[in-house]
Amino acid sequence: MLLAAKPPDWTHERFITWWRTDHAELTYRLPGLRSWRHTEVEAALEPRSEGWDGVSILGFDTEEDLRTALASQEWAAAVAQVGDMRGRRIAVLGTEREMFAG
């Protein structure tokens, strides 16, 4: 999962468009990628949650598949595209569990 914030000199709209178009083209190529969900953050629900623009959840069958993707040329290309854009991100690994389905 990646939580990301735009570079200081970009608009929120520019960042989301870039993430869902130019950057997405590189993400789609990651080896072993099984799913990808992207959420545009529209509002913070409390002051300490402000400053984030989007959440990406990349799905892989196993942690090994994820690690293979992270070591790939495709991942290197995606990181190179981000370059020094000066945005912020938090990247974490976890196991998803559905806790409620109404």
TrEMBL record:
Gene3D superfamilies documented for this protein: 3.30.70.100
GO MF term list: oxidoreductase activity
Domain EthD: 8-80
Domain of life of the source: Bacteria
SUPFAM superfamilies: Dimeric alpha+beta barrel
InterPro entries (UniProt xref): Dimeric_a/b-barrel, EthD_dom
Protein name as annotated: Ethyl tert-butyl ether degradation EthD
Originating species: Amycolatopsis vancoresmycina DSM 44592
